[in-house]
Records
---
Amino acid sequence: MSENTRPFIQKIVNDAREYVQSLLDENKRLHDLLAGMQEENRRASARYVEVEQQNTNLANLYVASYQLHGTLHRERVLNAIKEIIINLIGSEELGVWEVNDGYLTLIDSFGLDDNEWAAIPAGAPSMIARVAASGETFVASNTMIALEGREKNLTAYVPLKLDDDVIAVIGIFTLLQQKEGLEPVDHELFDLLATHGATALHCTKLAAGAAQ
Amino acid sequence: MKKKVLLVDDSNTVLLMEKMILAKGPYDIVTARDGAEGIAKAKSEKPDVILLDVMMPNLDGLSACAALRADPDTAHIPIVMVTTRGEQANIETAFRNGANDYVTKPINGLELLTKLEYILGESAA
């Protein structure tokens, strides 16, 4: 190689290096852009799932409220309570006890032994009596209290309250096999049953009284 | 183009819930209250897909599913069983009777919409 051609060759090599470096830079820029878009896509997908879950939860609450207040017939209100627990919360073991004359009297059930649960003295040493007295929802998984006997499989007791008076208690026992545990919307459904279930049941009494 | 979905369930609560979930999709909804009415509606309405409850009066969902599959007029319609009991044996029975898929209660809206989109996309292909 002559002395005259060396600078020329060197320039070509340098230009080629610069060109390769610019390609590498562009490649990195596109790679970063793609990673950003993938991250954005992941965020959008997660948000979509979250919004759809919120939609389902709102639908649950709307359906429950609609069903409870869609009738003035006692049997239909009780049936609505059962359907809400079976289909929206997910349990096929439930009971509804009315509070009167010092007793909790079973007025509707599904999957329970009615004879075993028919009438419970309000002062009995059981959780259902404590819930009827306190007016506080009891969720078994939120406590360390070990329930025994017929309450062993309890998931929750929900007191139905008119103002501060407990007029009935809903008991929800074993959850469906595919249901791994209570979800936030289930607690919202408990709250809805506690207030709207009570007013719906009370309205059936008023309607029956008015009809007579 | 809207797809027609036949909802078969004896529970008002479930029917209303399913309607609300499907309301934001491109679906026309038809309902039936038991297996026998479901078969009749499947023949008269010719839906694109059927959501079929398992436990129902008159004719349960599994028997209705088998009857729909045995009838040339309805044999091609995709069926999604809606079941309270998620045990493996129940699901296997549903598939043996001709179900294409299943969802368990309480119904998850996203799961149901995703399965319907998949089934309807597949049946349109």
---
Amino acid sequence: MQTMTAWERFVETFFKPAMLAQYWPDILKGVLVTVEIAAAVVVTGLTLGLALASLRAYRLVAVNALIVVFVDVFRALPPLVAILLIYFGFPSIGISLPSFVVLWVVLAFVLAAFAEEIFWAGITSTPKGQWEAARSTGLTFSATLAYVVLPQAIRLGVPPLTNRTIAITKNTALGTVIGVGEILNQATTAQSFTGNATPLMMGAIAYIVLFVPVVVLGRWIETRFAWRRA
Amino acid sequence: MAILTIAGLRKSFGATEVLKGIDLAVTERELVFIIGPSGSGKSTLLRCINRLEEPSGGSVHFDGIEVTSRATELNALRRSMGMVFQSFNLYPHMTALGNVTLALRKVLKKQREEADDIGRRALGEVGLGDKASSFPAELSGGQQQRVAIARALALGPRIVLFDEPTSALDPELVGSVLAVLRDLKAHGMTMLVVSHELRFARDAADRIVFMDRGQIVEEGPPSAIFNAPREVRTRAFVAELLR
């Protein structure tokens, strides 16, 4: 067997045509799963975070204490630890959740914790005069929060939230350790069958193709939401 | 007939007593100016009237309703008491028209078209009919303050409380806001104004109230307060500001 050039070895390792042809359907399946989980995490995480920040604005002592505990725990805990704990630990106390659900819930909670802090920072940095002006026209506390304060708090939160959301969404790759069939899981499975790194490279490319538009969209949202204060 | 009656009003912040028993009555269609050195409690008095600050004691009656009673539906009451702030406090994410119509839609539950009609009329009254779709950041300070006045007027208030409405404005913009006050006065609006615009007060006010250290020191028509003040403190303050 003639010796391969460095270039041929590189292609053979990362872009083996037979592998590309054999495994692209699996990777595509993984992409769909990743997209599903990511979308579920973003929607539920941001919604929960906004709901918690809004609830916190009512300054009910007991409720706020619970919110702070929730937020601090999920900001401190590495998501991988929470995923393993729930997936492998909870069945022993009678709670068996599908791996998809475990991944979704943990990442949604982590995103909610960060989003709550960011929205809350926006709520507290809205000037007192905004509350007073709205209340002086007869708006209730809740209406002031909904129509005057939250729109401003959300805009303030968009730049930091965009980055945080992308970072947490990429953590869908953690699902591989509990067998969620997302991109990385498909890729590592194929890699261990074949002993070739091509499926991993396909996975990497799939992540880039998937997330570069998200990063670009994030940048667009950031500039769009940057507006001058009166 | 007094529309607003304040009796023995007190307000403390911690150990500091800011209002030490204020008695004041405002008659319908009257333009009353509250003047006095900073820290005298003028703004706090104004803010106690619609309970943006909770008074520590005494009472406020407005239009036959006890404002200071726990049972009073405050949000309903505040519709008929407009308030204008020193720093305008316009909602930066809404257009001028959006600012003016928010309470019309969310408090008075008016449909958008009707609210927009009322809002455009209110903006017209303050000379900003052409700025309905401008955002606050695109308006000058004087224009912003007039939008804030339109926001208060749109709800059809029985009284408007002005808390230093021109203090944050560049001198050349003050006139446009004072012109609106003059116009409102001509239309019979009842107004209570905390302000340092003594020259305007002398020309336009029906009555001047001089406050110092949480008390009303002296009150009377502008001619009496500016030309023949009885109290030494009034004389010193007026002389200083009109100099």
